């Protein structure tokens, strides 16, 4: 696609729906195996494990403070799309386990599947002007204000999340979780290229 291509409302709706549903499926895989991940979703998973609260409500609540920064950094359309995506993920991730279960799922396979599924979900959301909120918004805001690279903010946050995870999960589970996070980030890194795909 070229920079002159614009997504229609229907394009955006299906892209956000796809991204939110696939992200929800990724969360089902993640929590079935007791894994953790990075970013805001990882923090919500840790809180869910520690308290017994459902992932969906925790994830939705954690994202609420970030919308103002998103509005200032990205504008109202981005915030509206992100709000919808976060809301869908929060609801669908709570419902989906009633319809999807795994008799057998090896941790290695689950980690790779989680990375692929969640990576494709985020790519869809990014390409339709949305995100899953949270730390990414803060990272971009800090980059604008201080010059500190957004990627470094996200990496430092993820290090903290995985360090906390070691207090709630065994080292082997955290290691498998790290594999899933690595695959996810590789999918994003290798496929999210603005010079190859630019559309709004």
From TrEMBL:
TM spans (from-to): 16-35, 41-66, 78-99, 105-126, 174-191
Pfam families given in the database record: YitT_membrane
Cellular component aspect of the GO annotation: plasma membrane
Subcellular location: Cell membrane
Keywords: Cell membrane, Membrane, Transmembrane, Transmembrane helix
Domain of life the protein comes from: Bacteria
Record membrane topology: Multi-pass membrane protein
Annotated InterPro entries: UPF0750_membrane, YitT
Major place of residence: membrane
Keyword Nucleus annotated: no
PANTHER family: UPF0750 MEMBRANE PROTEIN YITT, UPF0750 MEMBRANE PROTEIN YITT-RELATED
Stated name of the protein: Uncharacterized 5xTM membrane BCR, YitT family COG1284
């Amino acid at each position: 696609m070229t920079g002159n291509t614009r997504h229609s409302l229907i394009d955006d709706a299906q892209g956000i729906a796809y991204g939110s549903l696939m992200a929800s499926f990724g969360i089902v895989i993640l929590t079935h195996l007791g894994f953790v991940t990075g970013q805001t979703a990882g923090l919500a998973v840790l809180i869910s494990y520690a308290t017994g609260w459902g992932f969906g409500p925790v994830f939705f609540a954690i994202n609420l403070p970030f919308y103002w920064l998103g509005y200032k950094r990205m504008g109202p359309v981005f915030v509206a799309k992100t709000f919808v995506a976060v809301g869908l993920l929060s609801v669908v991730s709570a419902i989906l386990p009633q319809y999807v279960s795994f008799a057998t799922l090896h941790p290695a396979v689950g980690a790779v599947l989680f990375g692929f599924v969640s990576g494709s979900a985020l790519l869809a959301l990014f390409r339709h002007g949305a995100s899953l909120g949270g730390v990414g918004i803060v990272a971009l805001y800090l980059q604008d204000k201080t010059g500190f690279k957004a990627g470094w903010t996200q990496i430092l946050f993820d290090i903290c999340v995985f360090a906390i995870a070691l207090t709630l999960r065994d080292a082997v589970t955290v290691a498998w979780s790290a594999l899933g996070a690595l695959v996810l980030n590789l999918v994003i890194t290798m496929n999210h290229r603005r010079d190859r795909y630019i559309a709004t």
